């Protein structure tokens, strides 16, 4: 017996091979391919489900963006760019860089001008959102099943835009509409880069670069540092020792605290508490500091801090479609509901902006169409814009009372922001009344308070041209000539600055020039009340040379409901329009006042139209009948509005409680 025999056991007995087993026994090895195939199939199904969820969320965000921005708020976006400003001149860049976060404000202002075409600007914004969504997936290494959670910051950005209301006119942040989009994209990109650093040295370098971006990115640079710290806290660091890991995590937190303090001496205009929030928009007016519209921006800052808690790709095997799919649908539904509830869809708010833009473009028919479509009372700005349109169409005397003239204060909905007409639409209204000095004055004051805007600069250029201040007009037009969408408008008017007589060849200036040329250029006080100033000024004005100005003064005397003011202006109008038919509303006022105070003027010698007399008699009989039934004056007015609401008779007796702001 040799050594080999004793080594392997009993001589002559070879060990049984696992491959030679009785057929009646089950072999685990034979089942392994089936189990592996089943696991592979489950993994592929799970992966396919996650991809489907990711694509569903992306498509939903894109659809929500287009619906709420382009479909619901195109007029808001257009006004937003109209009230913002951008120029490639380095002076504007230097002005932006006077505060931390200046570069992102400059870049946001550049993109903001692109919503001149709302669909174009919205498409670019939504593209940033989609990129941020997928960058966050990569940065935090989560599966597609969590994409709905990753989309929440984008919903916050959307809500922050569509619930601003009249704060649109009071924002002191010219790049507001794109700032959060670009800032979040920057922060997410930073976390993504940090997430894939392999060496601790690279991580330290990237953190230092992010910290040093504070003068350019401001608030969003600090958010990037905090997001990075949160991500590093929960990311595995197998190659790092405990001390190295603590150092890497602590570094961005320390930088977020220390860097603003380091840069503070370079921004002496900032208060100490502002150094950490520079670049974050605050909603403040002279009498209100509102937190509500800022809430979505605060949520935008906080929500991504939780993303590092989400399961990583390797842990996604525990994700079950029975849970993730309903969760995704619930988050998307809640997001849509939140956006729908936040969307500021006050009818007058949107109609007012459309009327303003139409008046600015001298599309008078569009102004009147908007006024005709109003379902309720208009704002006083809308009433004045309507009057301007009728004046320019020569229809004040025949159609002024066909439209709603009650007027009411703007409703902001979610807070008590007090809207002043001089900060919203008064400069344009002053301009069309020939009061170019008042228009320029409020353009300048609003620019100082809220920053320059294309709207103000265009209006100042027009006023300067009419005032004959050609050097000043050239300055404004040269600025607009560097813009993307207003350069053609500016280049069209620039020749006037070299040859002032050319202004006579531009019919858009004719009516304003006529009114301006027959009034003094004194800049007295309006106490911030545009309508009251115009009412008092024009109702107490007389002019024997300008038919346009005299018609304006007659109408304001009628709005005043002052009989003593009316008659001299009425007779002056009749003198200027000798041989012409007297407009219906002027006849109505004369016929009514002649009956109210017959001792002043004998109206029996006046040739009134039969329709004017008949409607007065019908108005008188119906009002007396309704009063005899015990109705109060307000109820009588409501009952008579459908029949006589287009007459001066109804306006005189029932148009009350006019709110001017």
Structure description:
The protein is an all-alpha fold and 661 residues long. It is built from 32 helices and 2 strands. Strand 1 and strand 2 form a beta hairpin. Helix 6 packs parallel to helix 9 (176-195), helix 9 packs parallel to helix 12 and helix 16 (347-360) runs parallel beside helix 18. It is elongated and about 105 Å long. Mean pLDDT is 88; it is low at 1-31 and 313-318.
**What is Rg?**
35 Å
Shape category: elongated
Strand order of the largest sheet: 1-2
Largest sheet: 2 strands, antiparallel
Q: Which oligomeric form is depicted?
A: single chain
Mean pLDDT: 88
Class computed from helices, strands and strand pairing: mainly alpha
Instruction: Tell me how many strands there are.
Output: 2
Helical segment count:
32
Uncertain residue segments? 1-31, 313-318
Q: What distance separates the N and C termini? A: 119 Å
Report the sheet-strand fraction: under 5%
- The portion of residues assigned to helices is 55-70%
Note the main attributes of this structure:
63% helix, mainly alpha, disordered N terminus, 661 residues, elongated, two-stranded antiparallel sheet, 1% strand
Question: Would you summarize the structure shown here?
Answer:
This protein is an all-alpha fold and 661 residues long. The protein contains 32 helices and two strands. The protein is elongated.
Please render the helix and strand layout as text.
Blueprint: H1 3-7, H2 28-71, H3 74-82, H4 90-96, H5 102-112, H6 118-140, H7 147-150, H8 152-162, H9 176-195, H10 200-212, H11 214-217, H12 219-234, H13 242-263, E1 283-284, E2 289-290, H14 295-302, H15 321-342, H16 347-360, H17 364-372, H18 380-393, H19 396-399, H20 426-432, H21 436-450, H22 454-467, H23 470-481, H24 487-498, H25 510-517, H26 530-539, H27 547-560, H28 563-576, H29 584-596, H30 610-628, H31 633-644, H32 648-654
Antiparallel strand pairs: 1-2
Helix pairs in contact: 2-6, 2-8, 2-15, 4-5, 5-9, 6-9, 8-9, 8-14, 8-15, 9-12, 10-12, 10-13, 12-13, 16-17, 16-18, 17-18, 20-21, 21-22, 22-23, 23-24, 26-27, 27-28, 30-31, 31-32
């Amino acid at each position: 017996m040799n050594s080999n025999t004793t080594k392997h056991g009993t001589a002559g007995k070879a060990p049984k091979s696992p491959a030679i087993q009785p057929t009646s026994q089950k072999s685990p090895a034979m089942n392994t391919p089936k189990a592996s195939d089943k696991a592979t199939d489950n993994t592929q199904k799970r992966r396919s489900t996650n991809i489907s969820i990711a694509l569903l969320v992306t498509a939903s965000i894109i659809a929500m963006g287009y619906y709420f921005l382009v479909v619901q708020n195109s007029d808001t976006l257009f006004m937003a760019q109209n009230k913002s400003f951008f120029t490639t001149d380095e002076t504007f860049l230097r002005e932006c860089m006077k505060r931390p976060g200046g570069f992102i404000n400059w870049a946001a202002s550049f993109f903001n001008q692109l919503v001149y075409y709302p669909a174009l600007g919205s498409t670019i914004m939504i593209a940033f959102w989609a990129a941020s969504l997928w960058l966050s997936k990569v940065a935090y290494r989560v599966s597609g099943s969590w994409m709905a959670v990753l989309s929440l910051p984008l919903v916050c950005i959307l809500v922050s835009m569509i619930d601003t209301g009249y704060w649109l006119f009071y924002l002191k942040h010219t790049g507001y509409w794109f700032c959060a989009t670009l800032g979040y994209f920057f922060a997410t990109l930073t976390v993504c880069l940090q997430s894939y650093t392999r060496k601790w040295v690279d991580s330290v370098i990237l953190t230092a670069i992010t910290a040093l971006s504070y003068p350019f990115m401001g608030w969003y640079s600090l958010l990037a540092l905090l997001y990075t710290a949160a991500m590093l806290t929960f990311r595995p660091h197998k190659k790092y020792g405990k001390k190295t890991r603590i150092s890497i995590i602590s570094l961005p937190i320390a930088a977020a605290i220390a860097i603003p303090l380091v840069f503070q001496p370079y921004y002496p205009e900032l208060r100490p508490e502002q150094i950490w929030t520079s670049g974050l928009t605050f909603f403040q007016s002279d009498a209100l500091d509102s937190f509500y519209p800022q809430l979505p921006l605060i949520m935008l800052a906080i929500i991504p801090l939780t993303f590092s808690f989400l399961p990583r790709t390797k842990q996604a095997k525990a994700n079950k479609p029975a849970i993730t799919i309903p969760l995704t649908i619930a988050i998307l539904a809640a997001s849509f509901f939140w956006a729908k509830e936040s969307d500021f869809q006050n009818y007058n708010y949107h109609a007012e902006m459309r009327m303003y833009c139409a008046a600015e473009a001298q599309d008078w028919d569009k102004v009147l169409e908007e006024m005709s479509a109003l379902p309720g009372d208009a704002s006083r700005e809308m009433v004045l814009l309507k009057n301007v349109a009728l004046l320019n169409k020569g229809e004040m005397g025949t159609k002024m009372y066909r439209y709603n003239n009650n007027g009411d204060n703007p409703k902001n909905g979610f807070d008590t922001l007090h809207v002043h007409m001089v900060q919203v639409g008064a400069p344009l209204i002053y301009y069309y009344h020939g009061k170019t000095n008042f228009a320029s004055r409020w353009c300048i004051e609003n620019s100082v308070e809220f920053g320059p805007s294309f709207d103000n600069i265009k209006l100042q250029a027009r006023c300067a041209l009419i005032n004959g201040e050609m050097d000043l007009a050239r300055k404004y037009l040269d600025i607009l000539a560097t813009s993307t969408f207003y350069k053609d408008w500016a280049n069209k008017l620039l020749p006037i600055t070299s040859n002032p007589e050319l202004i006579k060849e531009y019919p858009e200036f004719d009516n304003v020039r006529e009114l301006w040329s027959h009034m003094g250029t004194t800049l007295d006080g309006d106490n911030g009340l545009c309508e009251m100033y115009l009412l008092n000024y024009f109702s107490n004005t007389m002019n024997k040379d300008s038919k346009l100005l005299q018609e304006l003064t007659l109408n304001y005397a009628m709005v005043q409901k002052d009989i003593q003011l009316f008659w001299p202006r009425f007779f002056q109008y009749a003198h200027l329009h000798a041989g012409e038919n007297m407009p219906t509303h002027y006849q109505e006022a004369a016929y009514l006042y002649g009956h109210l105070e017959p001792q002043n003027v004998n109206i029996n010698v006046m040739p009134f139209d039969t329709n004017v007399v008949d409607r007065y008699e019908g108005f008188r009989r119906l009002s007396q009948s309704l009063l005899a039934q015990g109705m109060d004056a307000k109820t009588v007015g409501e009952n008579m509005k459908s029949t006589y609401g287009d007459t001066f008779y109804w306006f005189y007796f029932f148009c009350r409680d006019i709110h001017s702001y």
